[in-house]
Design a protein that fits this description.
Strand content of chain A: 15-25%
CATH architecture of chain B: Orthogonal Bundle
Strand content of chain B: under 5%
CATH architecture of the largest domain in chain A: 3-Layer(aba) Sandwich
Number of domains of chain A: 2
CATH class of the largest domain in chain A: Alpha Beta
Shape of chain B: globular
CATH superfamily of the largest domain in chain A: P-loop containing nucleotide triphosphate hydrolases
Oligomer: heterodimer
Helix content of chain B: over 70%
Structural class of chain B: mainly alpha
Order of helices and strands of chain B: HHHHHHEEHHHHHHH
CATH class of chain B: Mainly Alpha
Largest interface: A-B, 30 and 23 residues
Chain lengths: 499, 336
């Protein structure tokens, strides 16, 4: 067994009443890649932020090669050898400078470089760093001219100039193609052989299969599983991450009505399998799968925000090929987008204005708004969804996350739809609000088709009467939610789909 | 500071300040209180106010229009060119100027939404372009009846009475010849912009775009259309301002309207502080313009020299911005 590089004992962290980390124990070994898996909100990013000095833990200890490690700011962390490459690549590079300057950025403030930039010295040093990383990029190229993969590698190479003992990578492949990712993995192999301890955060099964020496699963602020016996138990890791403590919601499978939407030979991206799928009235269908499985792409196609490569869609018995979200809405396809803060909430508006936003023309005479009717519909939705507030005049940013989400869902229910799509409706939502939203969706499902895109299996089982599994841009499983075979669903979620 | 007091100051502080100023000047500046003086204040801010209402619309969609001043002066020069050199009718000149304003707004909008030029840069470029362009036809000279044209001819056209009417006529209201036409137009434009922004779905969507454009697009709104519309409104109101200026001056004065841009932007920004709106709004803009007018009128009557005016305006703007941003953000934080 390798030497322990970093050891974390019983780490706890809360933001206000919200306990994010509930006693984390974790060891990182030199020369090993530890993969950290966890769904949104599991606490991964908080853990990373504590390790790189952005947040301070409430209690618990971290030690680095046996001595205590308490970074108070990011500079403390990388001075002691804990270096992080964040998810957003452009935080790690400066696009308007050339490659050499980017690689040497941390050294530029050292005295030996003097007042005037010594280009030759700079480039010589930079080339050496690049060689160590097997990076073959012209040192004079502007970073802005490079692709994302190269930028990512430069960000990592720059991290290497800080001579890390522990390297943390937060979803480094989220914007890389398979080929680009492979370049990154080769680099990681090199680093590993140099004895660096690597903490690698990712959801992508293909990445994890390729590089993981150990897998640590996180769920709800705790470590829910550590897997280090070869061959690694990938399914076990995903189960530990998603969890499926069966929730006590009983789903009655309704009688399906007429066909609402039919996808025929839909191909999402080059080389992926075609999708054939029909959704019927009265159904609530959950489409689940890991990040990168194609859920978001499918959602955006249905809502007119992007186009499939090939294939066709029929809505009712008409061809449906929306070129814009306006057209989708006009055809009765409503979608509550994921990530409400950037895609849904109008922060400066109150509840009433937020609820009615997409359908203002239904609440106006000509161009003039009918304020009493707007108030009325907002009050009705506040009642039906149990939105906790003083009145419809409350600013939306005074509400809790769960209540904001109720407003977002309510927005798309003030008008009847043919097909209602909810993309990750339970993101950043507390249990009570999640129950409320789920039961309201089921209660109103009659007479329309409903698709819910969720990554967490728990949530899918709680809301849907039909569960569809997507993996690598294709549909792998289609189950009715009674006596569902969870092991089968999990293996469909994690299996490797050959193209 | 207690929370209630803070809320009161944010909401009514600026209005209290305004009333305080009026009372102060009424007591200490003889001749300040009275209908003629009040009308004079309105008249002094009418043109700036109209421009400010237009720029308010662009601020609502989280944009900015730096070209309004130059659109106004272009409209001034263009109307003079039409009347004096082309000898066109008043109506033709007015319609041409309004179309020019709309067209400039359209180009601004297209530069911003299609060419993705940042709003400040696009309208800065447009400002430069117009400042230059308006000088080309007359080789940089002002336009007046009897001027010698580059070709050697003498321009015989005149500003017709019907055109001068919109700048100079005064309506009777209790007192004879009290309310000038520009003041009436200012009030009408303010009312129109207020109704548009507050009472129509278009206005509400524009505010939504200004707060979260992506979310507004995902709720099925053609956000590009509304952004272009905001610049078109801004262009048209600026050209109205220019027409009023031309009708008041009675000539195409190349040096007029230098201060229009800064004054009207200041009025719109001061408007953020009115009633604690903390956002661009038509009522606030109109009051912001009046606030500056009252202050300058009062100070002038108390014999403050003219060269202190910009200093005073700047002071008001900074205070208003403190009201808007510092106090509002502090109370928002306190609320959580």
């Amino acid at each position: 067994m390798n030497k322990i590089a970093c050891e974390i004992y019983n780490l706890e962290k809360a933001f206000g009443p919200n306990k994010v980390l509930k006693g984390i124990d974790l060891k990182l070994y030199s020369g090993e890649i530890t993969v950290l898996m966890g769904a949104n909100g599991a606490g991964k990013s908080t853990l990373v932020k504590i390790l790189c000095g952005v947040h301070q833990p409430d209690s618990g200890k971290i030690s680095l090669f046996g001595s205590p490690f308490t970074p108070e700011k990011p500079a403390d962390a990388f001075r002691t050898g804990v270096v992080t490459v964040h998810q957003s690549i452009n935080d790690g590079v400066i696009p308007d400078l050339d490659v050499a300057s980017n690689l040497m950025l941390d050294q530029l403030n050292q005295k030996e470089f003097g007042f005037f930039v010594k280009d030759s010295l700079l480039r010589k040093r930079a080339r050496k760093i690049a060689q160590n990383m097997k990076l073959e990029i012209n040192m004079k190229t502007q970073v802005s001219e490079l692709g994302i993969a190269d930028r990512q590698l430069i960000a990592i190479a720059r991290a290497m100039t800080r001579d890390p003992k522990v390297l943390i990578l937060d979803e480094p492949t989220s914007s890389l193609s398979a080929k680009e990712a492979e370049r990154l993995f080769t680099t990681l192999d090199t680093l590993k052989s140099q004895g660096v301890a690597i903490l690698y955060i990712s959801h992508r099964m293909s990445d994890i299969r390729r590089i993981a020496d150990r897998i640590v699963s996180m769920r709800d602020g705790t470590i829910s599983g550590v897997f280090d016996k070869k061959p690694l138990n990938f399914e076990g890791a995903v189960t530990a991450m998603l969890g499926h403590k069966m929730t006590d919601v009983s789903i009655k499978i309704p009688k399906k009505g007429k066909k609402v939407i039919e996808l025929e030979n839909l191909v999402l991206s080059k080389g992926s399998r075609a999708i054939n799928l029909s959704i019927f009235e009265n159904q609530v269908v959950a489409i689940t799968g890991l990040i990168g499985s194609g859920k978001s792409k499918l959602a955006s196609i249905l809502f007119g925000a992007s186009n499939p490569l090939t294939g066709s869609i029929k809505l009712g018995n008409k061809n449906y090929n929306p070129l814009s979200t306006q057209e989708a809405i006009k055809n009765g396809v409503h979608m509550c987008s994921k990530d409400r803060a950037s895609n849904g909430v109008i922060k400066t508006f109150n509840i009433e204005k937020n609820i009615s936003l997409p359908f203002l023309s239904d609440y106006s005479v000509g161009s003039l708004l009918r304020f009493s009717r707007l108030k009325e519909v907002a009050r009705k939705k506040i009642d039906e969804l149990g939105i906790v507030c003083q009145s419809e005049d409350d600013d939306i940013d005074t509400l809790s996350g769960g209540n904001q989400q109720k407003v977002m869902v309510g927005r798309w229910l003030i008008k009847d739809s043919e097909l209602l799509i909810l993309d990750e409706p339970f993101q950043g939502v507390d249990i009570q609000a999640r129950r409320d939203i789920g039961s309201f969706i089921r209660k109103t499902a009659k007479g329309r088709g409903t698709i819910v895109f969720v990554a967490e299996l728990d949530e899918a089982l709680e809301i849907a009467d039909r569960v569809i599994v997507m993996n690598n841009k294709a549909i792998l499983g289609d189950h009715l939610n009674n006596n569902i075979n969870l092991n089968k669903v999990l293996s469909e979620i994690t299996s490797e789909v050959k193209l | 500071m207690s929370n209630d007091l803070n809320v009161f100051i944010i909401k009514y502080g600026f209005l209290v300040l305004l009333v305080g100023l009026i009372i102060f000047f009424s007591i200490f500046a003889s001749g300040f209180a009275g209908p003629r003086s009040a009308v004079f204040i309105f008249q002094s801010v009418a043109i700036t106010g109209i421009l400010a209402l237009g720029v308010t619309c662009t601020l609502v969609v989280d944009g900015f229009d730096l070209s309004i001043g130059s659109v106004a002066t272009s409209s001034l020069m263009m109307s003079a060119y039409f009347l004096v050199i082309l000898e066109a009718s008043a109506l033709t000149a007015i319609i041409a100027c309004l179309l020019m304003g709309a067209f400039v707004g359209l180009i601004n909008g297209i530069l911003i939404v299609r060419m993705k030029v940042p709003d400040l840069l696009a309208t800065l470029g447009m400002m430069f372009l117009l400042i230059g362009l308006q000088r080309v036809p007359t080789e940089g000279r002002s336009i007046a009846t009897g001027m010698r044209l580059p070709s050697g001819e003498v321009a015989d056209g005149v500003f017709p009475e019907s055109f001068l009417w919109i700048g100079r006529h005064r309506f009777d209201l209790f007192l004879e010849k009290l309310i000038p036409v520009p003041v009436v137009i200012f009030i009408l434009v303010a009312l129109f912009i207020w109704i548009f922004l507050e009472l129509t779905r278009h206005g509400r969507l524009m505010y939504a775009i200004g707060s979260n454009e992506r979310a507004t697009a995902l709720s099925g709104t053609n956000t590009n259309f509304y952004k272009v519309l905001a610049y078109v409104i801004s262009g048209v109101t600026a050209s109205i301002g220019g027409l009023l200026l031309a009708a008041r001056l009675g000539r195409g004065d190349i040096a007029s309207g230098n201060n229009l841009l800064l004054d009207s932007v200041a009025a719109a920004l001061i408007g953020f502080a009115v009633l604690g709106a903390a956002k661009p709004n038509a009522l606030g803009t109109a009051i912001g313009a009046l606030f500056v007018g009252i202050l300058l009128q009062g100070l002038t009557m108390m014999n403050a020299p003219y060269y202190t005016q910009d200093f005073v305006k700047g002071g008001v703007l900074v205070i208003a911005l403190v009201f808007t941003f510092a106090l509002t953000s502090r109370s928002r934080q306190g609320g959580h």
